[in-house]
């Protein structure tokens, strides 16, 4: 009995000695997985103390509206980055899709609901072409989508002749309010749920993680790598088209230069949210937090009357920090 009691007391002491480091490891793991969320909470607290205008209902809704378009683009971008690719064309695809919606309604007389379907299909086609170039022509996704970015933006200017085209009432609904809630925020939530279901609860999502983690092993295990590569770009194109609808709805018109530079914010949102640029890692919830974080930064700087030039500097530093953090995290995982 004495020996047993000694053993049990020894085990208790060992457990007590291990618990601090175990708790520290858990904290580190949580911080590593949720760094963007922690940063968002801290930033909101700082801005709340810095200016009383930040936590007003109108401003919070404004942050949500500002984040909506980038978040929708970023949800589509998440599929591509998880599968070890990158899509530089999402901003241009959003612009050309919205322009096709406006043109088919104004010049071709199609019903508004049909123009929306045509615009979304156009986004899928542009994304699919990038996917085909990446999968079968063996073009790196960076080059394939850089080319598509130029093609899509050029077609936007060709279709519009460089001028805005007014959109119909149904398209404008995407920029309106419903029961006091901005529709762009609703669309952000809906598209986020759809993206999370695809990525987490379908075989397609599992294939994306597998291809991004190890392409050759995925091929040997029977996963159609080419099909997966095309699929992620098609999804990215569809989400870009929806983002284009939201932009057109807010502006009540399709603008030739709409969403210029948005691809960088989308990529930044995904990386800030914890995805790895090397593929195989990423979460829609993290991407959502990343998009909100960028919107809060811009909103806070605007409220504090910081020059738009300095805002670009701050956003650039945030992106650099996020990418550096991802690199360090991958190096630690390798060791």
UniProtKB/TrEMBL annotation:
UniProt membrane topology term: Multi-pass membrane protein
Compartments in which it is found: Cell membrane
Pfam families for the chain: BPD_transp_2
GO molecular function: transmembrane transporter activity
Membrane-crossing residue ranges in chain numbering: 36-57, 63-81, 88-106, 112-132, 139-159, 179-199, 230-248, 309-328
Keyword annotations of the record: Cell inner membrane, Cell membrane, Membrane, Transmembrane, Transmembrane helix, Transport
Entry's Gene Ontology cellular component terms: plasma membrane
Matches recorded under PANTHER family: ABC TRANSPORTER PERMEASE PROTEIN YPHD-RELATED, ABC TRANSPORTER PERMEASE PROTEIN YPHD-RELATED-RELATED
Identification of the protein by name: Sugar ABC transporter permease
UniProt organism field: Bifidobacterium aemilianum
